Amino acid sequence: MQNKQKLKELFKESLSISEEKVNDKLKYNEIEEWDSIGHMTLMSAIEEEFKITLETDDIIDFSSFQKGIEILKKYKVDFK
User: Fold this and answer.
1) Other C-beta atoms within 10 Å of 34: how many?
2) pLDDT tens per residue across span 8-52
3) SS3 (DSSP) at 27
């Protein structure tokens, strides 16, 4: 499974949302499920899946699906 698909699955599972809600334009607080608690659940799942430790600034800056891809690239997660 490619990393973009893995990330979509993490969003879906961590936020308990349908696959239709997960898209490149999804933003923090745009849907009810992606609140502060959902955000921390998602960050934890991402760290576990990709075997990384996100810096606090990156956790705060992780404000959309697309921004998340940019941040994860910084940690050498490949999105070809």
Assistant:
1) 23
2) 999 999 999 999 999 999 999 999 999 999 999 999 999 999 999
3) strand
Structure tokens at 26: 């999804």
The conformation of residue 34, written as its DSSP 8-state character, comes to: S
Q: Rounded to 10 degrees, what is the CA torsion of 74, 46, 11, 8?
A: 60
**In this structure, what token pair is assigned to residue 18?**
């349908």
**pLDDT for residue 1 is more than 90:** no
User: What pTM was estimated for this model as a whole?
Assistant: 0.94
Are the C-beta atoms of 33 and 17 separated by less than 8 Å? Answer: yes
Radius of gyration of the chain (CA): 11
Q: How far apart are CA 54 and CA 43, in angstroms?
A: 8
Residue 27: Cβ within 10 Å count:
12
